[in-house]
Design a protein that fits this description.
Number of helices: 11
Oligomer: single chain
Largest sheet: 7 strands, mixed
Shape: globular
Structural class: alpha/beta
Strand order of the largest sheet: 5-4-3-6-7-9-8
Number of strands: 9
């Protein structure tokens, strides 16, 4: 939805891109219309592109100018109101979101239909790269046939299904009943492939509706992709310890990395609340995650970073120290 000239102000920023030794540092310059807080509910077109778990670049010129713009929004107050509407805290908000509007949005993003916009397609690419990298980490250690794997926060089965196709015995869970139903549906379609029986040597993943705190048992490997974004660091430490207690040999985590640059982009995205943006998004410093693992006797063996224009994810593989 376009804003009238009275209701918007064009703001121009320039942000430095993250760089490494092999690429020249280039500025990222974008002009965006920043709606005042009173009209934030009108940005329906923007809100379908951006939600609080989607890091979006709308521009930057200087940290001071951006800070002034950020002061127009009050995301914490908005989140508190959203939590009150569903009668609880972060967990209840996440469950509600991914059973309703969030489920519809992320099913499209995780799927292969053309019913996605440019930003969503970019996030799809980033997430698929994360899954590919995790599968490579796992297969580097040998065949997965008969290996027990806990896919904690399985979503629509993007990782569970490839694991099952490699012969792994997968226990998959998600806080969203809608996500679990979709994951099981897709797993049956892909693993049975139109036949009455699953291929020999393969096992259909066991899908359950559970939050991370409710998970139990012991597994050769535990994988938790892009779920820590829903946990503040003080709760993430306890969750990492819990996930490590379920794993015998390997724990693989992916999370949104907390750096000055990515934190800035996240805060910019929060300027566009939208009616369906109902989850907090927490970034985590790699050092904090590593410290949490070390506290429970684990060490990081492999590291990876997946970046696209709108998707950023740090992957770590940890083993007992």
């Amino acid at each position: 939805m376009a804003f009238s000239s009275i209701l918007h102000s064009p703001v121009h920023f320039t942000l430095p891109r993250p760089h490494n030794h092999h690429h020249r540092r280039m500025p990222l310059s974008i002009t965006a219309a920043i709606p005042p807080l009173s009209t934030a509910a009108d940005v329906a077109a923007v809100s379908d592109t951006l939600d609080s778990t989607t890091i979006a670049v709308i521009g930057g010129g200087s940290v001071a100018a951006l800070a002034a713009v950020l002061s127009l929004a009050d995301p914490e107050k908005r989140r508190q109101m959203q939590a009150e509407e569903v009668g609880g805290g972060d967990k209840e908000v996440v469950r509600e979101y991914f059973n309703n509007d969030g489920f519809q949005r992320w099913r499209r993003i995780y799927g292969d239909t053309d019913d996605v916009n440019k930003v969503q397609k970019d996030i799809r690419l980033g997430h698929s790269k994360t899954v590919e990298n995790v599968m490579k980490m796992l297969l580097d250690e040998g065949p997965l046939s008969g290996i027990t794997v806990c896919d904690a926060g399985c979503g629509t089965g993007c990782l569970s299904i490839p694991l099952a196709k490699e012969g792994a015995v997968v226990a998959a869970s998600d806080i969203s009943a809608a996500m679990v139903a979709e994951a099981e549906k897709q797993a049956r379609e892909e693993l049975f492939n139109g036949k009455d029986e699953i291929s020999p040597g393969l096992v259909l993943p066991k899908f359950e509706v559970k939050d991370l705190e409710s998970l139990g048992g012991k597994y050769n490997t535990v994988v938790c992709l892009d779920v820590l974004i829903h946990y503040p660091q003080n709760k993430a430490d306890a969750m990492i310890a819990h996930l490590a207690s379920l794993a015998e040999n390997r724990l693989i985590l992916s999370f949104a990395p907390k750096t000055f640059y990515y934190d800035l982009l996240k805060r910019v995205g929060e300027l566009f609340p939208g009616p369906s943006k109902a989850t907090r998004a927490y970034l985590h410093a790699e050092a904090d995650v590593e410290r949490a693992l070390q506290k429970v006797g684990w060490r990081i063996r492999k590291r990876g970073l997946i970046t696209t224009q709108f998707y950023f994810s740090r992957i770590v593989e940890a083993i007992p120290a």
